[in-house]
Automatic annotation (TrEMBL):
Naturally occurring in which organism (per UniProt): Streptomyces iakyrus
InterPro entries: CheY-like_superfamily (IPR011006), OmpR/PhoB-type_DNA-bd (IPR001867), Sig_transdc_resp-reg_receiver (IPR001789), WalR-like (IPR039420), WH-like_DNA-bd_sf (IPR036388)
Residue ranges occupied by any OmpR/PhoB-type domain in the UniProt entry: 130-225
Protein name (database record): Sensory transduction protein RegX3
Domain of life assignment: Bacteria
CDD domains from the UniProt entry: trans_reg_C (cd00383)
Residue span(s) of domain Response regulatory: 2-117
Length: 228
């Protein structure tokens, strides 16, 4: 797997690159946000994962994550010393697929890289389900991960799309919070509950349809199919 390591500390990068190389990764090292973005211009989705340190010299790592997500669907794992829940939620809401706090165990980091890679490689549309969903003015194309409202494309993060697609495949059905977290994030991590709330709020705002996703208090969420 090709991996883009975004880390400004050369000593840390060299040590981590050596470990990753021993485990079969082809590592490209970027020392700044701009270097990372430049590496992604010609390569696009050729990288399997981006390991993104947030303490970069030229740009805030969160800003870099947002820019990466606008140009590629490559999975992003944030690596940082910021351990508070608010920072995690902010990073995940920007489109990061996982969040690792320093100091970390190398074995755990490798496991997370492989887990993210497995999740994203399984995101192709399963056989036996519709490839396009139409819910009033909302049009969801599952193979291309494209969403539009009244013909206007809406830019969603990876997890926002996954959440919307899950709910839209069974309009009116209540999905338990635990079920959504398991299906979309494929984890039972306790902090994901707050992240789910953030993603629901973001979807309502981006689609400009606050009533589209209904909160079922104490249970979870369901999609209310709009008329038209």
């Amino acid at each position: 797997m090709r991996l883009l390591l975004v880390e400004d500390d050369n000593h840390v990068a060299a040590a981590l690159s050596a470990v990753l190389a021993r485990h079969g990764f082809d590592v490209t090292h970027a020392r700044s946000g701009e270097e990372a973005l430049q590496a992604l211009v010609p390569e696009g989705d050729c990288f399997g994962v981006v390991l993104l340190d947030l303490g970069l010299p030229d740009q805030d790592g969160y800003e870099v994550c947002g820019k990466i997500r606008k140009r590629t669907s490559t999975p992003v794992i944030m690596v940082t010393a910021r351990s508070d829940v608010r920072s995690r939620i902010h990073g995940l809401n920007l489109g990061a697929d996982d969040y690792v706090v320093k100091p970390y165990d190398t074995g755990e980091l490798l496991a997370r890289i492989h887990a993210v890679s497995r999740r994203t490689s399984h995101e192709d549309t399963p056989s036996g389900i519709e490839t396009e969903l139409r819910l009033g003015p909302v049009h969801i194309e599952l193979p291309t991960r494209r969403v539009s409202v009244d013909g206007s494309v809406v830019q969603l993060t990876r997890k926002e799309f996954d959440l919307l697609a899950l709910l839209a495949q069974r309009p009116g059905v209540v999905f338990r919070r635990e079920q959504i977290i398991s299906e979309v994030w494929r984890t039972s991590w306790e902090g994901t509950g707050r992240t789910l709330e953030v993603h629901v709020a973001s979807l309502r705002a981006k689609l400009r349809m606050p009533a589209l996703i209904e909160t079922v208090r104490g249970v979870g969420y369901r999609l209310v199919a709009p008329a038209g």
